């Protein structure tokens, strides 16, 4: 699935990656379910793979209900 609702608004993979990273990214893959619960609110967590630079690939995680976000760095 390419778009998801996060905190009440529809986001694309690139937008989700920017929410996790805090700045724009070069490229982002499709959004997937992360099969884990948010450690802060217990909500559903989704993930997106993205490239913040040409030499790095990161998987970012974002809660669909609250501000919690993390990555695999």
Low-pLDDT regions: none
- Estimate the global geometry from the Cα principal axes: globular
What's the pLDDT, averaged over the residues? 93
How many distinct beta strands?
7
Structural class: mainly beta
Protein name: Putative RNA-binding Zn-ribbon protein involved in translation (DUF1610 family)
Organism: Halorubrum alkaliphilum
InterPro entries: DUF5795
Describe the structure.
- Strands 3, 4, 5, 6 and 7 form a five-stranded antiparallel beta sheet that branches. This protein has a two-stranded antiparallel ribbon with strand order 1-2.
- The chain has one helix and seven strands, in the order E-E-H-E-E-E-E-E.
- Helix content is 12%, strand content 48%.
- The chain has one helix at 13-21, and strands at 4-6, 9-11, 27-28, 32-37, 44-53, 56-63, 69-71.
- It starts with a strand and ends with a strand.
- It has 73 residues and is mainly β.
- This is Putative RNA-binding Zn-ribbon protein involved in translation (DUF1610 family).
- It comes from Halorubrum alkaliphilum.
- InterPro entries: DUF5795 (IPR043813).
- It holds the Pfam family DUF5795.
């Amino acid at each position: 699935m390419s778009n998801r609702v996060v905190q009440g608004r529809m986001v694309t993979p690139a937008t989700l990656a920017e929410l996790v990273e805090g700045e724009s990214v070069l490229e982002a893959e499709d959004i997937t379910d992360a099969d884990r619960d948010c450690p802060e609110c217990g909500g559903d967590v989704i993930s997106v793979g993205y490239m913040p630079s040409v030499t790095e690939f990161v998987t970012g995680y974002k809660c669909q209900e609250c501000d919690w976000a993390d990555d695999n760095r």
